[in-house]
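Entry 14. Structure prediction run on the chain below.
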Amino acid sequence: MATAVLTGVPTTITLCESVTGWSGDTFSLEPDIKVQGTNSVSCAMTNNGSNTIAFATSNAPGGTFSAVNIHIRVWVNLAFVGNIDTQANNGIQISIVHGGGTSLYTVGGSDNYAGGWKQYVVYTGNTPTSGSTPSGTCTSVGLQINTNTKPRNQPANCWVDAWYFGPGFTVTGGTSGDEIDWSHIAALDATNAYGVCTRLDDIYFLAGDINIGSGATATWFKSAQKVQFRDLPVSSTLYGVTFSGSGARINITGGAWGAAGTQNYFVDASDSTMTSFSLTGVQFSKSSGITFANGQTVTNSVFDSCGQVVPSTSSFHNHTFSNYVGTTGALLYPSDDTNIYSLNFVNCDNGVQYTAASDSTSPAFDAFIFDDAAGNFDVNNTSGSAVSISKNNGSNPNSYNTANSVVTFLGASVTTAINVKDIATGNNLQDARVLVYVTDGTNFPFEDTVSISGSGTTATVTHTAHGLSTGDHVIINGSTADEYNGTYQITVTGTNTYTYNTGETVTTGTPGGTIICTFAFISGLTNASGNISDSRVVNADQPIAGRIRKSSSSPYFIQGSITGTVSSTTGFSAVVQLVRDE
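Output returned:
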């Protein structure tokens, strides 16, 4: 059976195995009513009014401790609920004596305490009900019960056990095929009554900061369980789960994560050194933020009423984002958008945040669907510069946050594809040379006048507002120095310039003639399947023409030609059959 190991656990104030250190009443040990260990400490509260007991922290295993910004956790069991005042009237209070005096935190009352064991948690960074925010050294932790009628006089009606302070713990353990999950963590927590991870039916209630994985220590964690963070008066940044460590192997395959009341929580899986991390089919709600890392697989999940999700460059797809409220975005667009697709955005103030670190190499939304809710923005561009984003595979963004930088939405990338065959045999032809070029200037340069200078084998073209990208092909004609003419792949060097390799040393540094440039969709050889293609955004239907030949090696073929139009929505494809010339 899988075994979990807990480290960094809450620090013991008292395990209530002795009455030493207690004051305010007459105390005895109770072996039959407890939450852990051998005993609890019991007493009889009989006052109509305030009943106060306290433990001197000088008797804690580690002695006194700082009272500043800590979470104190106390287990209490009261048998006189009918006598206790309501929470509004400070029925149940935790007292802390510290360098600045005594502070009382109201944690409950007869209106929300039904009897039996209950753990109360207070955060000393919060403003107390009375007294000042704790400072200096904590010298005493206690319990004050305020009643509105006198409790019955009986041997014992108050039991306390397992008092701790601390934020949470770190979990390791499990092996391949025998992984740990939340049930193992809750069982180990219950043995010590930390109260950080408890189980009720099939739901695991969390009340702290939990780290799963630690450095190189082997941690095999697999879960499809429901997780709920408790509504307690804790620090606003306490709740969360961090997955980390090179020894961690995390596999989350379902379940639901949420938070009660006004609480939220973070999920931090940003450690890219983990051996493996995969997550699929999880519903997250009310998370303050979720972060993933490169190399992870994150699929088929829902992020409802969450803060920003940071996918990094994980394989991230088939998700729904709903009810995001914020000024950044439900999703932070990654630095490389290769592995992110199929996302739905429903009622999000800002859907996608695009920053200066986001993918700037032809960014494209791949099946990103937005609901167009009134007053919401599909994209929030905070990069400081205008950006153009392509709409691929049915993506439908049409709005951006005008308080920030401009976003231009381009049509989807479409494919221009040519297949070349031998007309006699029907076989595909490899190494057929294909040239496909535009026949007007609808979208790309067509017979634009340019100027060229050359040195060595490099030609530099001055071409005003060319709009081309590195890797594009152009046809150069009209130079009086023939070594400049031909079809070339370019490297863009500026808004108005680019270079290409002539393949031979130029003899004229500045050629004459009326030199013109035309854009080519395709210039190259077919593969073993007889295919060659190009994919890019075409904003409007683009007329084209082309030539196809195979004459460099036997069998030889007569040149063929094509004409047509590349559709801005469906692209263009053609099968060209060549006749042998032998």
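The first helix runs from residue 182 to 192.
Filed with the rest of this week's runs.
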